[in-house]
Specification:
GO terms for molecular function: S-adenosylmethionine-dependent methyltransferase activity. The protein has about 250 residues and is an alpha/beta fold. It has nine helices and 14 strands. The strands form four sheets. The protein has a seven-stranded mixed sheet with strand order 5-4-3-6-7-14-12, with helices on both faces. A three-stranded mixed sheet has the order 8-9-13.
Length: about 250
């Protein structure tokens, strides 16, 4: 399934509204993971990036890339959407970094180019993982790390489409998760735990950690309605994978 054209159109169309709604949260402070904006200093997923060559897969308006460039990383921001890249260019601070239009499943970079490839949702949510993960592994140097945050299959399996919220009731078959209709023909991708393990190991990566970010009970989800409000404190809403290339 080639989701690139539809996903590109989708993000070009919604970029302005998305950034208006979410940039105040995403850009409020550096290194905030996921829909609950949990600081990386609590999760210890990225570590020190000073002097590292870093690729962000699906950089959006560059909130993460901007922060890591300011910390001394040599960052490249990649995104499928021209509108998202234009937003990143407008928001770029004094620490300049290149922006590249491209798809996570067809990375336009040479092998062994980066010390760190990462995304917070981004490319590994919006590109077929069985294609995107091997591409990420290819462009990593030996010892380089792939770190990425995606929605948990628990979250998708409990999402009530009609009500537009996550519930405590299973709504979809766990083993039926694959693609998620995001409107206008666009799709995101959802895997089971086992599928993620097989794809990561198949790409030659070593899994160092699987962090399930857990917000405090009163923490609001900035993107989705949840019932009960402390849903993600009780069940995993996201998966933060930490891997490396041996």
């Amino acid at each position: 399934m080639d989701s690139i054209p539809a996903n590109r159109r989708f993000w070009n169309q919604i970029s302005s509204a998305y950034q208006h709604a979410h940039d105040p949260q995403i850009g409020a402070a550096p290194r905030l993971w996921g829909t609950y904006a949990i600081p990386d200093e609590h999760l210890h997923a990225l570590g020190d990036v000073t002097g590292k060559r870093v690729l962000e897969l699906g950089c959006g308006a560059g909130q993460w890339s901007r922060a890591l460039a300011a910390e001394g990383a040599t960052v490249v921001g990649l995104d499928l959407s021209e509108a998202q890249l234009a937003a990143a260019a407008r928001a770029m601070g004094t620490a300049r970094y290149p922006l590249v239009q491209g798809a996570a499943e067809h990375l336009p970079f040479a092998a062994d180019s980066f010390d760190l490839v990462f995304c917070d949702y981004g490319g590994l949510s919006w590109a077929p993982p069985h294609l995107a993960v091997p591409q990420a592994a290819r462009v990593l140097r030996r010892g380089g790390r792939l770190v990425f945050n995606v929605a948990s299959p628990w979250f998708e399996a409990c999402y009530d489409e009609a009500a537009g919220r996550v519930t405590t009731t299973l709504q979809q078959d766990y083993f039926g998760l694959d693609t998620v209709d995001e409107d206008q023909g666009a799709v995101s991708y959802q895997l089971t735990y086992g599928e993620w393990v097989r794809i990561l190991r198949g790409a030659g990566l070593v899994i160092d950690d699987l962090i399930e970010p857990r917000p405090e009970p009163a923490t609001a989800n900035g993107y989705n309605r949840t019932d009960p409000p402390d849903w993600a404190h009780r069940w995993p809403a996201e998966l933060l994978w930490v891997t490396h290339k041996p």
